[in-house]
């Protein structure tokens, strides 16, 4: 059976990762967590006390570090220099830093090359903010997920609470609005809906419902290959 690449983009908290993982499971595809890759670099920068405003320093750090993503039945595991950082990259400190880290052109260029290499074999699902426009502009299916700021903040707050992380709804809501502005206005690979992307508002949808819709569209695309 033919396989395609699926690019899922959207702002923070729109449900990209949850939906992408479900789509990958349902289609038996490989899920590539691009956001975790940037979070891993942000975590390493904070641990190394590197200046996250210094693009050259971050590019050098990324080049020198060993970044590995492992996909298991229990979920995704992230390793930096053989140390598992799966939970640590979700800390509030990393979340507050990752958007700045991802602004640097040199960092994004390296990350894009890594992501494109992973997707060469097809049968992958990638989520992020510039997958359909920059990383996989020729992906057979592009989806742009949206949701209200309030709903996105609620989801992030619940995720933090469920994982035992300190969380404040109003702070998260403000952080999301700030990140939306940063991601949409950055000069390199801004958050933009690809012209041929299917837009899907998930405010009133569960992750399972959104995934089902995407899988249905994907199967139709596959039939036409």
What does this entry show, briefly?
The protein has helices at residues 16-27, 34-48, 55-64, 92-101, 105-118, 131-135, 149-162, 169-185, 207-223, and strands spanning 5-9, 30-33, 67-72, 75-80, 83-84, 124-128, 141-146, 198-201. It has 225 residues and is of the alpha/beta class.
Q: Write out the strand line-up for the largest beta sheet, numbering strands in chain order.
A: 2-6-1-7-8
Percent strand equals 15-25%
Number of domains: 1
Shape: globular
Rg measurement, Å: 17 Å
Structural class: alpha/beta
| CATH fold field value | Rossmann fold
Q: What's the β-strand tally?
A: 8
What is the second-level CATH architecture?
3-Layer(aba) Sandwich
Helix content: 40-55%
Mind describing the biggest β-sheet?
5 strands, parallel
In oligomeric terms, what are we looking at?
single chain
Low-confidence stretches: none
CATH superfamily, by name, is P-loop containing nucleotide triphosphate hydrolases
Family: Belongs to the cytidylate kinase family. Type 1 subfamily.
Keywords: ATP-binding, Cytoplasm, Kinase, Nucleotide-binding, Transferase
Pfam families: Cytidylate_kin
GO molecular function, one term: CMP kinase activity
